[in-house]
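Entry 14. Structure prediction run on the chain below.
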Amino acid sequence: MANSLDVIGIQKIIPHRHPFLLLDKVEDYEPGQFCVAYKNFTYDEYFFRGHFPEMPIVPGVLTVEALAQAGAVAILSQESFKGKIAVFAGIDNCKFKRQIIPGDTVRLETKITAVRGPMGIGEAVATVDGQVAVQCTLKFAIVQ
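Output returned:
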């Protein structure tokens, strides 16, 4: 049975808030293991005014952040890390393969592949209509 979350449930796990909460819903997650989430990008997103006015594209770094937030749901829902914050420790092998534009619904999947103390690694992929948009290895540290 899937563990789904709406925005209120997501906010109970991770500290991000508008305008920087980049997850609209979680389809499924397992604490300490993985998270599958979605973000619907609409033309009203604040960054489209400047990135780029004539050709709106979601900044790649925001897609990486959305993937990290999905990973944060997975790791911070684990009992030993509840109430803490996950921060970037590194981003490896990041590839941008497809532009994300207004109207796209992005599927964000992050699998936690290693945890050693307060440090960890996740493999992440963002897709739109089954096409890979971004993939990367995320390294994180748990703080606070």
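Residues 48 and 55 are 9 Å apart (CA to CA).
Filed with the rest of this week's runs.
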